[in-house]
Amino acid sequence: MNNSYKGKLLISTPDASGDIFSRSVVLLLEHDMHGAFGLILNKKNKLMSDKLNEIFGFEVEVYDGGPVERDRIFFIIKGKPVTENFSSIGDDFYVTEDIQKVVAAIVEGDLEVNQMKVFAGYSGWGGMQLETEIKNKYWTVVDVYNLDYTFPNDKGLWRDIMQNLGGDFLIFANSPDDVTMN
Question: Could you report the per-residue pLDDT of 134-160, keeping only the tens digit for each?
């Protein structure tokens, strides 16, 4: 493996339709010869949102991070870390699973809900699996461009990125959800 896609976005192509990855934007948090780990940025999970709202006692939107271990909760947070257990995402963001510290920071007023995005589950690939999927054109790899990972961007993120890529991607951006209906 020559390239690591860590820190980049995976944009699903219409070939990946029919499952959780259909029209997905995945932030790759880890990628090496052993596999890859990422979170889907644009798929809200209403059922899990309702569950966590009851548990936390405050309103929070939960996103499907991916199809693996959907009972695990991850947070992408903007700003100063509220826990020692985190991995940086660039200069302004970090990811953590430290539910206790995150909830305590919200309750204590050290963190606002709009400074974070909550994910249930993650997206994972075994060694060389992602490279094969990219080669088969299930994914397009994109450098991150001034993206606020905590912004509630479930509706238009995939389409906006496809439009910004231009060329043949404009066709994808404007295609129906079910490309067989085109």
Answer: 999 999 999 987 899 999 877 789 999
The amino acid present at 120, given as its one-letter code, is: A
First-residue to last-residue Cα distance in the chain: 37
Rounded Cα–Cα distance for residues 82 and 109 (Å): 11
Q: Domain coordinates of the chain in residue numbers?
A: 9-181
Instruction: Confirm if 45 and 39 have CB atoms less than 8 A apart.
Output: no
CB 138 within 8 A of CB 41: no
Q: How far apart are CA 158 and CA 127, in angstroms?
A: 26
Q: Please tell me the distance from the alpha carbon of residue 41 to that of residue 10, in angstroms, as a whole number.
A: 10
User: What's the CATH superfamily of 9-181?
Assistant: VC0467-like (3.40.1740.10)
pTM above threshold 0.85: yes
Please state the φ and ψ torsions of residue 128, each to the nearest 5 degrees. Answer: 70, -5
Which tokens hold the place of 24?
């997905």
Interacting residues of 154 by C-beta distance below 8 A, sequence separation 6+: 42, 43, 44, 63
- CA 31 to each of CA 84, 96, 117, 144: distance values in angstroms, whole numbers, following the listed order: 22, 17, 21, 15
135's tokens: 């080669």
The encoded tokens of residue 178 equal: 């079910």
